[in-house]
Amino acid sequence: MPEINPLEQRCISVVRGLAMDAPQAANSGHQGTAMALAPLAHVLWTRVMAYDPEAPDWPDRDRFVLSAGHASILQYSMLHLMGYPLTMDDLKAFRQWGSATPGHPEAGHTAGIEVTTGPLGQGFGNAVGMALAERNLRGRLGDGFIDHHTWVIASDGDLMEGISHEAASLAGAQGLGRLTVVYDDNHITIDGATEIALRDDAPARFAAYGWEVIELGEAGDDLDAIEAALKASKVDEARPTLMVLRTRVGSPSPTWEDNPKAHGNPFDEATIAETKRVMGLPPEETFFVPDDVANFYRNAAAARAATHAEWTERTASADTEARRAFEAAWSARPAGDIVAGLPTFGPDDSPATRVASQQVIDALAPISPSLFVGSADLSGNTGTKLAGAEFQSAATPSGMAMHYGVREHAMAAASVGMALHGGIWPVGGTFLVFSDYARPSVRLAALSKARVVFVWSHDSVGVGEDGPTHQPVEQVMALRTIPGLCVFRPADGNETAAAWATAAKIDGPVAMILSRQGTPTLTGTADLAVDGVANGAYVLVDPDDAQVVLAGTGTEVAVAVEAAETLAAEGITARVVSMPSWERFEAAGAEYRASVLPKGLPVVSVEAGVTLGWHRWADVPLGIDRFGASAPGATVLDRLGINPAAVADAARALLDDR
Amino acid sequence: MPEINPLEQRCISVVRGLAMDAPQAANSGHQGTAMALAPLAHVLWTRVMAYDPEAPDWPDRDRFVLSAGHASILQYSMLHLMGYPLTMDDLKAFRQWGSATPGHPEAGHTAGIEVTTGPLGQGFGNAVGMALAERNLRGRLGDGFIDHHTWVIASDGDLMEGISHEAASLAGAQGLGRLTVVYDDNHITIDGATEIALRDDAPARFAAYGWEVIELGEAGDDLDAIEAALKASKVDEARPTLMVLRTRVGSPSPTWEDNPKAHGNPFDEATIAETKRVMGLPPEETFFVPDDVANFYRNAAAARAATHAEWTERTASADTEARRAFEAAWSARPAGDIVAGLPTFGPDDSPATRVASQQVIDALAPISPSLFVGSADLSGNTGTKLAGAEFQSAATPSGMAMHYGVREHAMAAASVGMALHGGIWPVGGTFLVFSDYARPSVRLAALSKARVVFVWSHDSVGVGEDGPTHQPVEQVMALRTIPGLCVFRPADGNETAAAWATAAKIDGPVAMILSRQGTPTLTGTADLAVDGVANGAYVLVDPDDAQVVLAGTGTEVAVAVEAAETLAAEGITARVVSMPSWERFEAAGAEYRASVLPKGLPVVSVEAGVTLGWHRWADVPLGIDRFGASAPGATVLDRLGINPAAVADAARALLDDR
What local confidence, expressed as pLDDT, does residue A1 receive? Predict the structure, then answer.
C-alpha cells in the first residue's frame, strides 16, 4: 500500500466515526457498509465529483446515487462535511421523527439526495435514467449546459435484484458511457456469506451487457488507486463502467470486520471505542470532527464547486436563444395554453382511450420540448409513439423516443431517474397488468414526487382474448392505494385530453389508465371534462330530481350512461357521475364532493375491476371480483356483469330496498 | 441440412397449420412463434420428454414450461396431437368463452399445462422452482419415485425481464442440472428487431451465472440436431443449460417470415393458403390433421408413456415405508391434528407475530415433511428459519431450508413452480414492503391456485427507523385486491397459529402479514382464534348492549381493545372485532358477517395502512393515508394517529353524530 496523507487518513477515520456514532445514538442503522466505503466516498467528494454544496440543485452537477441506501449515514456524513445544508444536529437526529436524516435517503427531503433509495436495485435503475437524461440534454442543448457524470454505489443485493439486470442491459444497449457503478463487493449479506446464494461472475455478467469492467480488487485506504480507477471509468464514453471494489464490512473494527452482523446492527459502545482507538480517534468522543478535518473537507468542496462557477460564466455568455432553450427544457413542462392545443372528440368519434392518448401526445409534443416518450416494447399498442422523433441512442442522443425493451421495471426506475435529474418529462407505456412488474419503482416515484407519466393501457377484461393473465382486474385499485400517485381512468377521448392537461401541472407521478377497446364520446365531455377531470369527478348526466346516482370510471361511464337511459324510459331519474381520478376528487374538498355525490342520494357504481374500495362512494358497487377469462372483450365484459342491464337492475333494486 | 423423414416433416407442417388456423378462427393469437418452434416441440414430445397423455398428473413426468406463453397454440396443438384430453373442438374454440384453450396457458384449467404463463419471465422462474422441487424430492425419496427433467421455452422477452436474472442466477448458484431452457432467439420483438433494445451476449450472460450454454444456431427443421442438443443438455447434471436456438418467426411463410407483424397478428387467408401450399398441405383445409400424422403422434406418445408404466411397476415394488413416505411428501400438507401441535400464547407473552410465526413453523415442521422454508436474505428477520434443516444445495438436495438471496421475485415464482410441481409446501419470507417486487408472481399464484405461503413481516410503519421506503402502508390493501389470495394479518401469537392452521387447508396462496414489533396476547384469542381466524373475523370483546364496534387487524386489534377499555370507563360499550382475513370473512357468508358486524351498529376501524377499502366494513376508518416516516416505530404509529385515544375519539364522535 502506498503512503496515505495522514490528514486524509484522519478524514476517513472521522467519517467512520460518524458512521458508528449516529447508528449508535439511534440504536438503529447500518454502519458496516458506510465504514467500508468511507475511502471511496472521500475520493468521490474530494477528488472526483463536480458539485456545489451551496447550490445542491445546480443542473450540471454530477449525480451521486447510493443504491445501497441502507448506508445512508455515509452519504449524510459526507453532505455535512462538504458543507451542504445538513448540520451536526441533523446527524445526531439520525432516524428520528422529523429529522433531515431518515433511515434511507429520500429525494426532496434532504438537500443533496438525488433519488430515494433503500429498496434494493432502485437506485441502480434511477441512475441509468439520470445518465440517459444527461446524454439527451447534452445532445439537445450542447455540452455548455449539461455535461456531467453519474456515480453509483451498488451492493450485492442491488446486483441480485432483477431490476439490476433490466437496467444494466438497457444501459449497455444504450452505451451510456457517463455512468459508473461501483460494486461494493463485500462478500456479506444479512443471512451470511454472499456465496450461500450468489455465485455470479459479476464482471463477466456486466461484460455480457456491453459494459466496461474495472476490477480494482481490495483497495483499502489506497485513495490514489481508487481515484485512478474512478477517473479511468470516465475515459470510455461508449460504455458504462462497473468498477468492482472489494471491501470489508465494518472495517477497521477488530471485532466486527467481515461479520454479517456488522451490516444492520449498531455496534456496542466497547466495540466503537475499540475501533476509534484503532483509528487514532479519541475513543470517548462522539460525533467528533476536528478542525483540520472540517477544513480539509470545506476546502475540497470549494475546489469541486469551481466547476459550478465556470458553468455559470459559460452559460451566462451563451446566446439568448440557447439560454431560453435550456430553460424551456429544464422546466420539463409544456409551454403555453395546454388545453387549447389538445384534440377534441365529437359524437362521431369513439376511439379507445389509448388511441386518444396517442393523439394527445402528438399534440403535446410540439409545445413540450422535454417530453420523452417510450414503451416496454408496446409503443403502438399503448399509444406511446412519438411522431417524427428520433429514437434515443448513442448515435442520436437528442432523440426523444425510446425503446426500453421488455423491461417494465427498468423503464419505471429510469423514468424516475430522468424526472429527478431534471429537464425530462418522461412517459413510459406498457399494459396495465404489467404495472405490477414496475410497482416498486412506481411507489418510489410517488414517495419522491417524480413527474413521470405511466401510460398503462389495456385496462380491463376488455382486453379480451389474451385472457386472465393479461386482463387487469385488481391493478387500478391497487394503484389507487399508493399515496401520492394520481390515477386517471378517463371515460373517453375528451376526458383523456383533460387528464393530460391536469397531469402536466401535477408535481408527482401520474397513472394514465387507458382502454384497449373503443368507447363512445359521451355527451357533455367536450364542455365538462377539462374542469371535471381536474376535480377528479363530475356530473355528466344531470336530470332534475335524480333518484339515484350511477357512478363509473373509464369505459364503464358509457355503461352507466346507457343504464341511465334505460331507467329514464321507465321514469327513474338517474344522475351519471364520471370519476376519473379518486385522488383529485378527494383533494377537491368535502363541499365539492357533496355537490357531485349529494348525501342521501343512493349510488350504484360500475367499474370493470375489483369492488374493494368502492364502498367509499357507492352503496352498491358493481365490478369484477374474480380473474377474467379468455374470449372477445365484449363477451367477457358482458358475461362478468359489466353491462347497462346489470347497472339498471342494481339501481332498481337499490331504490326498491329503501 | 440432413434429410428429414417426410412423415415427420408433414407432422411439423400440420402443427404449423394448426398454429395458423386457430388464431385465424379466433381473429386473435400468436402464430408466428408457434410456427417457428414447431420442430422443437415435435422433437420434445416425440423423442425427448417423459409423460403420459392419459395421466397428465403422473408425478414423475418431465415438466414442460412454455415461458413464452403467447405461443400457447403450439402447446395446445401438441397436447391435442399427443392424446391429452384436449379435442379438435377445443382447438377450434381457441380464445373463446369457456374453452379449454385460453389465450395463454393456464395451470388447473387445461390438462397438461404445468404453470400459467404469458406475463414474461414467469415461466422461467416457475421452472427453476420445478427443478428445485425435483431435486429435493429425489434427494428425500430416492430416484425410484422422482427422477425427471424440466424443459422450458423462453423468448427474448423472457430474458429481458428482471426475473430471468434472479431465477437464472439462483439456478446457477444451486447448480440445477435437470433444467434446460431453450432460448428462442428469433431477433424479433413487437416493436421491431430485438437489437433496437437488446444487445446482451446471452450465452456469456448465462455462462456468468454458471450455466452450461449450447449454441445450436439455426437448426431449421433438422430434428436430429435439435434432439442431439436437447439430450446433450441432460448430460451435465451439475449445471442448468441454456440452449440457444435461432428461429424465424412465422416460418415458413414466404410473406411473413422474420416480420415483427407475424408475432401477434393472425395472418390473412391468402397468406395462410400460401404458407400451406409451401408446406404441401391442402391450402383450403383448416384444422387439417391427416391420419398418418395423427397416428404418428399417438404412437410416439405411447412410446413416451412407457416411462410411466415403468414407474408404476417400480414404485409398486418399493417397500411400504418408502411408498408411504412418497405419499406423505406428495400431499404437501401437514399430517394429523395441526391445531393440537401448535404453540399457544398466554397473557405474559407478547411476541411480534413474526416471532410467533417462527414458533409455528418450528411446530409444523415435524408433521410437515414437505415444508420447504426460505427467505430472500431475511431468514432471521422474517421468522423463516427451519431449525435443524439442511440448506438446499446440490450437495444436500434433501435440504428443506433455502437461501433465495435478495431475489423476492424469483423466490415467489420458484415457490409457485414448486407448489405446482407437487410434493413441496413452499414458504418464502421477506419484508411486506418488498411484496411489491414479487407481485406478478403472487398474482399468478392466485390465478393458478398454487399452495404457497408468502411470509411478509415488518407489516406497517411499526417498522420504525428504516423509514418510509421500508414501511408498508398500501401493501396489505393492495394484496387484498388480488382475487384468490388469502391474506391473513393476525393480531397476536394465537391468531398467528390459527392463521397457519387455516393456511394448511387452503387450496391456494396465502399471505401471512406479520409485525416487526411485539404485541400483547389478547384476552380471548387462546379460545377463539382457531375458529375466528378460519372465519376471517370474530368478536373478541363482547359487552352487552354494545353501542359501537371497534374493528381492526394485526397489531391494531390491541389498540382497539385499549380504546374499548377507555370507552368502557366512560360508560360507552364497545364491541371489539378482530378481522384477520377479509377473504375468509367474505366467504363465511352474510349471516355470519351480520353476527359479527350487526346491521345498524356503527363501526370504527383501525389499521396502520391506507383506509381505502375499509368503507366496506366501517363508518369511520382510521388509518394512514400517506407514506410513513423514519423514527422509532412506536413514535411513528402514535404520530400518525394509530393509538387508542384516536380510536376512542372517533367512536365518541361517531356516536355523537347519530
Answer: 54
> For the residues B631-642, what does the mean pLDDT come to?
98
Task: Kindly determine whether residue A406 and residue B120, on different chains, have CB atoms separated by under 8 Å.
Answer: yes
Determine the distance in angstroms separating the CA of B497 from the nearest CA of chain A, rounded to an integer. 25
Q: Which residues of B are annotated as a binding site?
A: 30, 70, 118-120, 156-157, 186, 188, 263, 354, 434, 458, 466, 470, 516
Residues in chain B closer than 8 A to A199 (CB atoms): 169, 172-173, 209-210
B-chain residues near A401 (CB < 8 A): none
Residues of B marked active site are found at: 408
Distance to chain A for B58, nearest Cα, Å: 26
Beta-bridge partner residues of B243 = B182, B214
The whole-angstrom separation of Cα B330 and Cα A504 is: 56
Whether residue B519 is contained in a domain is answered as no
A415 alpha carbon, distance to own chain's centre:
6
Which residue from B minimizes the CA distance to A209? B200
Burial of A637 (0-12, 13-18, 19+ CB in 10 A): buried
What's the domain count of chain B? Answer: 3
* Chain A residues close to B375, C-beta within 8 Å: 191
Contact state of A466 with B199 under an 8 Å Cβ cutoff: no
A502 and A556 inside one domain = no
Task: Supply the DSSP symbol for B62.
Answer: P
Asked if A181 and A273 sit in the same domain, the reply is yes
Query: B310-341, pLDDT tens digit by residue?
Result: 999 999 999 999 999 999 999 999 998 899 99
Checking if the pLDDT of B2 tops 90, the result is no
Mind telling me how many Å the CA of A327 is from chain B's nearest CA?
31
Whether B389 and B504 map to the same domain: the answer is: yes
Residue A3: alpha-carbon gap to chain centroid? 43
- What's chain B's average pLDDT? 97
Q: Test A191 with B375 for CB contact under 8 angstroms.
A: yes
* ipTM higher than the 0.95 cut: yes
Chain A residues within an 8 Å CB radius of B165: 162, 164-166
Q: What backbone torsions phi and psi does residue B583 show, to the nearest 5 degrees?
A: -65, -45
Answer yes or no: is B315 within a domain.
no
Mean local confidence (pLDDT), B387-397? 97
What pLDDT, on the 0 to 100 scale, is given for residue A259? Answer: 87
With respect to residue B359, please indicate whether it lies within any of the assigned structural domains: yes
8 Å CB contact of A481 and B478: yes
Cβ within 8 Å, pair A612-B189: no
- Three-state DSSP class for residue B208: helix
Helix axes B644-657, B556-569, angle to 10 degrees: 60
Is the distance from CB of A209 to CB of B205 less than 8 angstroms? yes
CB pairs under 8 A between A and B: 336
Q: Which residues pair with B182 in a beta bridge?
A: B153, B243
CATH number of the domain enclosing A581: 3.40.50.920
**Average pLDDT of the segment spanning B383-396:** 97
DSSP string covering A24-82, please? HHHT---HHHHHHTHHHHHHIIIII----TT-TT-TTSPEEEESSGGGHHHHHHHHHHH
Question: What band does A263 get if pLDDT is binned at 50, 70 and 90?
Answer: confident
A106, A212, A408, A495: the active-site residue? A408
Bond preceding residue B598 cis, omega within 30 of 0: no
Helix, strand, coil percent values for chain A (each to nearest 5) = 45, 15, 40
Indicate the residue of B480, B483, B615 with minimum beta-carbon distance to A627: B483
Residue A608 belongs to what domain range? 532-657
Q: What is the pLDDT of residues A402-415, one digit of tens each?
A: 999 999 999 999 99
To test the contact with chain A by mutation, choose from B155, B161, B615 the residue with the greatest count of A C-beta atoms within 10 A, namely B161
Average pLDDT of the residues in A525-536: 98
- pLDDT confidence of residue B266: 83
pLDDT band at B657 (very low <50, low <70, confident <90, very high): confident
